[in-house]
């Protein structure tokens, strides 16, 4: 419970995007409609209960996979270059062009497995273990907002896109592997084409 004093707006945070506000309401609406009683949060209306319950549900689900992938970058750029570049060399993920500094989102919930830098490859990158036999890779990032062991919810910002490592231009490298997560063209059966799954209702895991 939280006591609220004064005037202005009450902002309801979107737990999936820590730096964004989902909605804002004038403080008088909370008081006049009974969303707050005597300056304190209470469940005096279905609206206040819905807001709090939705928030708690999202927090509780942090770290849990849904079995579907949202787009890790909120733009309409095509996901391409899987499983090879135009020149024919192996490429285990999909590339999504985007300006440096674009928020990168967890495509599904899970636990941060790896946060590293590889100059000759992914640059700054994050691996999320979804706990269902699949992991996702996010490469060439400029900044990273999470650390190993963090639980993340689907849609949570994990950093910002960049052009680090072996990159020919600003983009996000998004890669998905299933157990045992082996690397390389000889282990292509361990890979999924991420471009077939992001932003659709197609399930990558039951």
From TrEMBL:
Highest taxon of the lineage: Bacteria
Domain spans labelled M23ase beta-sheet core: 91-179
GO MF annotation, one: metalloendopeptidase activity
CDD domains: M23_peptidase
InterPro entries registered for this protein in UniProt: Cell_wall_metabolism_enzyme, Dup_hybrid_motif, M23ase_b-sheet_dom
Protein name in the entry: M23 family metallopeptidase
Natural source organism: Candidatus Aphodocola excrementigallinarum
Upper lineage: Bacteria, Bacillati, Bacillota, Bacilli, Candidatus Aphodocola
């Amino acid at each position: 419970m939280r006591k609220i004093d004064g005037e202005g707006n009450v902002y309801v945070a979107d737990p999936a995007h820590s730096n964004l506000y989902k909605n804002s309401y004038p403080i008088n609406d909370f008081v006049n409609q009974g969303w707050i009683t005597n300056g304190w949060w209470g469940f005096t209306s279905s609206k206040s209960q819905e807001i709090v319950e939705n928030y708690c549900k999202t927090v509780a689900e942090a770290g849990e996979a849904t079995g579907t992938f949202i787009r890790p970058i909120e733009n309409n750029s095509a996901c391409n270059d899987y499983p090879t570049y135009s020149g024919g060399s192996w490429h285990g993920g999909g590339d999504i062009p985007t300006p440096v500094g674009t928020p990168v989102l967890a495509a599904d919930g899970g636990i941060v497995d790896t946060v590293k830098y590889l100059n000759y490859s992914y640059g700054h990158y994050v691996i999320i273990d979804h706990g269902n036999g699949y992991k996702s890779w996010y490469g060439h990032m400029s900044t990273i907002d999470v650390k190993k062991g963090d639980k993340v919810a689907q849609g949570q910002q994990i950093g910002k896109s960049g052009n680090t490592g072996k990159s020919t231009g600003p983009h996000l490298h998004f890669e998905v592997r299933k157990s045992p997560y082996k690397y390389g063209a000889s282990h292509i059966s361990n890979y999924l084409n991420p471009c077939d799954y992001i932003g659709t209702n197609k399930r990558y895991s039951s």
